[in-house]
């Protein structure tokens, strides 16, 4: 027992000793457990951003230091990790997570300690209201992207009827499905029905057959799916002969869509943060993809890699404007963020009164194994969070 | 004499709970709270799994029910309107204080345990384990689908943060007191008899079903209470919080300390909690002199898994076996009342 | 789509899912019949087989040789876990063995995450695997993966049937399943029989892993868990410990799952599919512990 104490004690001492001359940012992701397939790319993106910023001279003349722990997709571990980051490591801000379960486990602790917490990819627009003034999103809310999806279906694809399929086992897909239903009905579209599945099933044949047997063929299929499942979904839906446009959210933004789907991914459209294409993307996107590939030897696994990267740039920008690595000043500076160009679009909090950024939503179309820009939209109606 | 020890123990715990938050860093307070909740959860699991030999894999199901029941009962009315707009009338207008909500959560779980236990407690060995695993799956599916009560797979949030060290320490003491009273009473002897030799137990007139059902329901009661405490500690959770990962953690703690010992449950929980915290900090990477060890996330789970297997191979009865502190048994247990693991395993190894 | 076409297509779906469940469940049952071990790590052998196939392909092997490598590797993994983890606890109470397998699956899944990362990876397939057969103007479709799943499962089961009836080791397996101690007393090399059982069961799991990955198009470290749970249900409703039972159970479960999901949406049953399936498992344990085939069991006191 004594030895354990010594080990723990020295860990705390070591981390305190490094505090001089660096700005510490908590890197709160689930490196293992069920959320890790989304969190690890985001964490990798964050590490890459810190490396770039430090190579360019750091912020306020100081180097950034990421303090990483593994949340293990376990809320109790996340609360321990949060206290360690705040009390022993003395981080001035925390970046992290891609799901609201984890964000809501950490959020209240950061809120109480007055430490700004920016989530990279928990897209639930309810988070800031649920946690408080220290909670920021680096991504748009699901209500915005679902509304854009609905408008794209109704106006651009001329889809007067749609069928909704959603993954019932996660919050992201549940919210996306609900918001789509709301926005699509508002536009006058007709939902012919809905069907659910459970992430991990990997066999959707029963649902597919049911959709094929519908008396009226839907013009469009809106499928709210997680990145881990979307390749499988597209592959199986197309193979069974459902040729309608398939539309969804930023969960589709993974190379698996085209790798697994192959030609079947044609006529798939999704709302996301930016066109992640090494040739056709914005200069920021091109630079990011090249840097990520150089650092990790592979393309970004999904949209969360870019969001994790942007979260760090968002914080670095706020720290610079705050003039000092002081949590309260950083929160105030974050609120004043205006037109910050990032890989996933431009982030503005100033003047919106919201801590969910008003970003333009990109709609991507897949054709011949390639991603193309289909539209950049701001929705006319946004469902209430 | 035994009361003197009890008083000393209670006084120490009271002191810890009262002073803890003022002198301990917040991190340690949090570690202690989770440790205390796990003591409640694991010792209550031990009552059925270790003492009656009904090896349940469904414990996280009760923890989940406890957390949701207490969460629904204590949610502020305004938040209820926002988060759970479709709640039936009799629940929509209710906002209970912590203690009654916790008790109701416990009683609710005990009732569920009686209902499912009446059929399930007749099963033996692997079959009861697989059936209770089925119960866990069913609870998970129902929680995901009962959206008007649970928000489905969306995070259930806004729960008042009632749980502190005092509540946890208090409930942990109550749990251990009640469980030790039961486990080392004639009823407890009956429970152990149904574990060691069900046929002989029946022959001497012990009714197996009531003995096992009692253990299962009591275990479920404290699982519900522990779940409520856990819910009010986390203040937000979802059905995924109470699934297989939680089960594996509880099992690791239970088998390390010794399934048939309440002291063992406490030892197992404490050892695994400390070990996970140490490993969690080591796996982030560290430097030993000039040697830089990089971060290997996931190493702590693998290490815990190996410890689990080593215990199973070399000490399946756990660190403590069936030994207890005299404080726990109150001198009510005869020597040699332990489980039959030792003989079977020794003889069975080829 | 006419009603008949609808039923036919769902039947095809059920056969395809059911044969996979049967393939996994058979391995569970073989091991259970010998050791009374409820092997949670069985699902991870699927993961091992699928990942080995993936890496063999990435190393330049053709698809079929790569599958061969995958099956070999999963069989080898089965032998290793038997030797390292299960042999030392052989003969211990059921619960000790069950817990050992829980710990083992925990280690294997986390090792998988550590080595391969938990993001799914594309599982490359040759084009002929995805070849589609289409009838009635595309209202009824199935592809070579579906056909292969069914065909390979039937072949594997025929092979198993031949093996346990016609080979010495196979006969030994049946004798040992009847009574391990007695088999040992009459001079049967029990260790050899058990190792062979693990080779067979894990190889089957490896095949199932490859087929599962082919249907999904991806492999990931946690891929084995869902099919494992389903295989438990299949093995038990068929009659735990019995090979024909596992097969029947697998197909019945596949049919049941598809049935629940193909019912009209306003019945509202499909989200409860897994709950219903496990409720059925519990019902079988209580009222027909021997499963559909009525295998002799001592499940009650």
UniProtKB/TrEMBL annotation, chain A:
<dbReference type="InterPro" id="IPR000709">
    <property type="entry name" value="Leu_Ile_Val-bd"/>
</dbReference>
<protein>
    <submittedName>
        <fullName>Leucine-, isoleucine-, valine-, threonine-, and alanine-binding protein</fullName>
    </submittedName>
</protein>
<feature type="domain" description="Leucine-binding protein">
    <location>
        <begin position="22"/>
        <end position="367"/>
    </location>
</feature>
<dbReference type="Pfam" id="PF13458">
    <property type="entry name" value="Peripla_BP_6"/>
</dbReference>
<dbReference type="InterPro" id="IPR028081">
    <property type="entry name" value="Leu-bd"/>
</dbReference>
<keyword id="KW-0813">Transport</keyword>
<keyword id="KW-0732">Signal</keyword>
<comment type="similarity">
    <text>Belongs to the leucine-binding protein family.</text>
</comment>
<dbReference type="GO" id="GO:0006865">
    <property type="term" value="P:amino acid transport"/>
</dbReference>
<keyword id="KW-0029">Amino-acid transport</keyword>
<dbReference type="InterPro" id="IPR051010">
    <property type="entry name" value="BCAA_transport"/>
</dbReference>
<dbReference type="InterPro" id="IPR028082">
    <property type="entry name" value="Peripla_BP_I"/>
</dbReference>
Automatic annotation (TrEMBL), chain B:
<dbReference type="GO" id="GO:0005886">
    <property type="term" value="C:plasma membrane"/>
</dbReference>
<dbReference type="InterPro" id="IPR043428">
    <property type="entry name" value="LivM-like"/>
</dbReference>
<keyword id="KW-1003">Cell membrane</keyword>
<keyword id="KW-0812">Transmembrane</keyword>
<feature type="transmembrane region" description="Helical">
    <location>
        <begin position="54"/>
        <end position="78"/>
    </location>
</feature>
<keyword id="KW-0472">Membrane</keyword>
<feature type="transmembrane region" description="Helical">
    <location>
        <begin position="27"/>
        <end position="47"/>
    </location>
</feature>
<dbReference type="Pfam" id="PF02653">
    <property type="entry name" value="BPD_transp_2"/>
</dbReference>
<feature type="transmembrane region" description="Helical">
    <location>
        <begin position="127"/>
        <end position="145"/>
    </location>
</feature>
<feature type="transmembrane region" description="Helical">
    <location>
        <begin position="98"/>
        <end position="120"/>
    </location>
</feature>
<feature type="transmembrane region" description="Helical">
    <location>
        <begin position="295"/>
        <end position="314"/>
    </location>
</feature>
<dbReference type="InterPro" id="IPR001851">
    <property type="entry name" value="ABC_transp_permease"/>
</dbReference>
<keyword id="KW-1133">Transmembrane helix</keyword>
<feature type="transmembrane region" description="Helical">
    <location>
        <begin position="255"/>
        <end position="275"/>
    </location>
</feature>
<protein>
    <submittedName>
        <fullName>Urea ABC transporter, permease protein UrtC</fullName>
    </submittedName>
</protein>
TrEMBL record, chain C:
<keyword id="KW-1003">Cell membrane</keyword>
<keyword id="KW-0813">Transport</keyword>
<feature type="transmembrane region" description="Helical">
    <location>
        <begin position="145"/>
        <end position="164"/>
    </location>
</feature>
<comment type="similarity">
    <text>Belongs to the binding-protein-dependent transport system permease family. LivHM subfamily.</text>
</comment>
<feature type="transmembrane region" description="Helical">
    <location>
        <begin position="47"/>
        <end position="77"/>
    </location>
</feature>
<dbReference type="GO" id="GO:0015188">
    <property type="term" value="F:L-isoleucine transmembrane transporter activity"/>
</dbReference>
<dbReference type="InterPro" id="IPR001851">
    <property type="entry name" value="ABC_transp_permease"/>
</dbReference>
<feature type="transmembrane region" description="Helical">
    <location>
        <begin position="97"/>
        <end position="116"/>
    </location>
</feature>
<feature type="transmembrane region" description="Helical">
    <location>
        <begin position="12"/>
        <end position="35"/>
    </location>
</feature>
<protein>
    <submittedName>
        <fullName>High-affinity branched-chain amino acid transport system permease protein LivH</fullName>
    </submittedName>
</protein>
<keyword id="KW-0997">Cell inner membrane</keyword>
<dbReference type="GO" id="GO:0015808">
    <property type="term" value="P:L-alanine transport"/>
</dbReference>
<dbReference type="GO" id="GO:0005886">
    <property type="term" value="C:plasma membrane"/>
</dbReference>
<dbReference type="GO" id="GO:0042941">
    <property type="term" value="P:D-alanine transmembrane transport"/>
</dbReference>
<feature type="transmembrane region" description="Helical">
    <location>
        <begin position="276"/>
        <end position="295"/>
    </location>
</feature>
């Amino acid at each position: 027992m004594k030895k354990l104490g010594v080990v723990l004690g020295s860990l705390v001492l070591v981390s305190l000793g490094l505090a001089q001359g660096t700005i510490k940012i908590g890197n709160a992701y689930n490196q293992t457990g069920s959320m890790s397939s989304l969190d690890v790319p985001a964490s990798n993106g964050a590490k890459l951003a810190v490396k770039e910023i430090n190579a360019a001279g750091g912020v306020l003349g100081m180097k950034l230091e990421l303090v990483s722990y593994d949340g293990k997709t376990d809320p109790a571990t996340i609360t321990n990790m949060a206290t360690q980051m705040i009390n022993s490591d003395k981080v001035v801000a925390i970046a992290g997570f891609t799901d609201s379960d984890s964000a809501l486990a950490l959020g209240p602790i950061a809120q109480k300690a007055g430490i700004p917490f920016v989530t990279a990819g928990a897209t639930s627009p309810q988070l800031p209201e649920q946690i408080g003034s220290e909670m920021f999103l680096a991504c748009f809310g699901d209500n915005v992207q679902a509304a854009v999806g609905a408008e794209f279906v109704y106006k651009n694809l001329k889809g007067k009827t749609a069928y909704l399929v959603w993954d019932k086992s996660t919050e992201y897909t549940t919210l996306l499905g609900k918001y789509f239903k709301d926005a699509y009905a508002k536009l006058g579209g007709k939902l012919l029905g809905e069907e659910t599945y459970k992430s991990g099933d990997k066999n959707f044949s029963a649902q597919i057959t049911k959709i094929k047997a519908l008396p009226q063929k839907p013009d469009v299929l809106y499928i709210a799916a997680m990145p881990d499942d979307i390749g499988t979904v597209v592959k199986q839906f197309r193979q069974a002969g459902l040729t309608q446009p398939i539309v969804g959210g930023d969960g589709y933004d993974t190379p698996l869509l085209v790798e697994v789907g192959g030609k079947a991914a044609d006529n798939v459209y999704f709302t996301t943060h930016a066109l992640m294409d090494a040739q056709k993307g914005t200069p920021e996107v091109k630079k990011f993809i090249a840097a990520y590939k150089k650092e990790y030897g592979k393309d970004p696994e999904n949209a969360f890699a870019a969001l994790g990267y942007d979260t760090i740039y968002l914080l670095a920008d706020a720290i610079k404007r705050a003039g000092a690595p002081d949590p309260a000043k950083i929160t105030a500076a974050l609120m004043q963020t205006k037109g910050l160009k990032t890989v996933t679009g431009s982030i503005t909090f100033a003047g919106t009164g919201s801590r969910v950024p008003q970003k333009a939503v990109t709609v991507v179309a897949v054709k011949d194994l390639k991603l193309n820009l289909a539209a950049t939209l701001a929705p006319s109606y946004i469902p209430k969070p | 004499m035994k009361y003197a020890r009890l008083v000393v123990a209670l006084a120490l715990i009271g002191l810890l709970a009262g002073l803890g938050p003022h002198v301990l860093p917040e991190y340690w307070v949090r570690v202690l709270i989770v440790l205390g909740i796990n003591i409640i959860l694991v010792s209550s699991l031990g009552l059925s799994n270790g003492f009656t030999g009904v090896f349940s894999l469904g414990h996280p199901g009760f923890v989940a029910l406890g957390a949701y029941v207490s969460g629904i009962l204590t949610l502020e009315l305004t938040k209820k309107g926002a988060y759970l707009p479709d709640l039936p009338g009799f629940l929509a207008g209710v906002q209970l204080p912590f203690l009654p909500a916790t008790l109701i959560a416990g009683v609710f779980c005990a009732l569920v345990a009686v209902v499912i236990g009446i059929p399930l407690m007749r099963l033996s060995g692997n079959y009861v384990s697989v059936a209770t695993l089925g119960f866990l799956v069913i609870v998970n599916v129902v929680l995901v689908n009962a959206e008007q009560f649970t928000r489905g797979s969306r995070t259930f949030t806004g729960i008042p943060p009632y749980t502190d060290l005092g509540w946890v320490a208090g409930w942990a003491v109550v749990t251990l007191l009640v469980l030790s009273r039961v486990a080392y009473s004639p009823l407890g002897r009956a429970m152990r008899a149904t574990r060691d030799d069900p046929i002989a137990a029946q022959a001497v007139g012990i009714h197996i079903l009531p003995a096992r059902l009692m253990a299962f329901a009591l275990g479920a009661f404290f699982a519900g209470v522990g779940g409520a405490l856990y819910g009010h500690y986390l203040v937000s959770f979802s059905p995924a919080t109470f699934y297989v990962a939680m089960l594996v953690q509880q099992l690791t703690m239970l088998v390390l300390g010794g399934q048939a010992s309440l002291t063992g449950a406490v030892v197992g929980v404490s050892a695994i909690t400390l070990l996970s915290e140490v490993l969690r900090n080591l796996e982030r990477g560290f430097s030993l002199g000039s040697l830089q060890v990089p971060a290997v996330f996931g190493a702590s789970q693998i290490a815990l898994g190996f410890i689990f297997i080593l215990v199973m191979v070399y000490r399946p009865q756990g660190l403590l076996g069936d030994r207890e502190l005299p404080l726990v048994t109150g001198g009510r247990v005869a020597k040699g009342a332990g489980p039959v693991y030792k003989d079977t395993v020794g003889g069975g190894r080829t | 789509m006419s009603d008949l076409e609808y039923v036919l297509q769902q039947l095809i779906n059920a056969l395809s899912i059911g044969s996979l469940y049967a393939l996994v469940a058979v391995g569970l049952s073989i091991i259970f019949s010998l050791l009374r071990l409820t092997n949670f790590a069985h699902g991870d052998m699927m993961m091992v087989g699928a990942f080995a196939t993936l890496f063999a392909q990435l190393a330049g092997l053709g698809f079929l040789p790569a599958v061969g490598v995958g099956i070999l590797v999963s069989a080898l993994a089965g032998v290793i876990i038997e030797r390292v983890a299960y042999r030392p606890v052989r003969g211990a109470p059921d619960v000790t063995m069950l817990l050992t397998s829980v710990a083992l699956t925990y280690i294997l899944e986390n090792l998988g995450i550590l080595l391969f990362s938990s993001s799914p990876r594309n599982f490359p397939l040759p084009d002929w695997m995805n070849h589609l057969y289409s009838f009635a103007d595309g209202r009824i479709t199935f592809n070579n993966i579906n056909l292969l799943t069914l065909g390979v499962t039937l072949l594997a089961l025929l092979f198993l049937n031949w093996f346990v009836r016609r080979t010495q080791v196979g006969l030994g397996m049946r004798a040992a399943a009847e009574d391990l101690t007695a088999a040992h007393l009459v001079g049967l090399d029990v260790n050899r029989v058990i190792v062979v059982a693990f080779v067979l069961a894990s190889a089957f799991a490896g095949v199932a892993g490859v087929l599962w990955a082919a249907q999904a198009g991806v492999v990931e470290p946690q891929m084995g868990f869902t099919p494992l749970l389903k295989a438990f249900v299949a093995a038990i409703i068929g009659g735990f410990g019995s090979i024909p039972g596992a097969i029947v159970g697998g197909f019945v479960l596949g049919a049941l799952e598809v049935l629940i999901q193909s019912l009209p949406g306003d019945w509202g049953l499909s989200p409860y599919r897994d709950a219903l399936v496990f409720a059925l498992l519990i019902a079988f344990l209580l009222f027909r512990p021997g499963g559909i085939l009525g295998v002799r069991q001592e499940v009650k006191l």
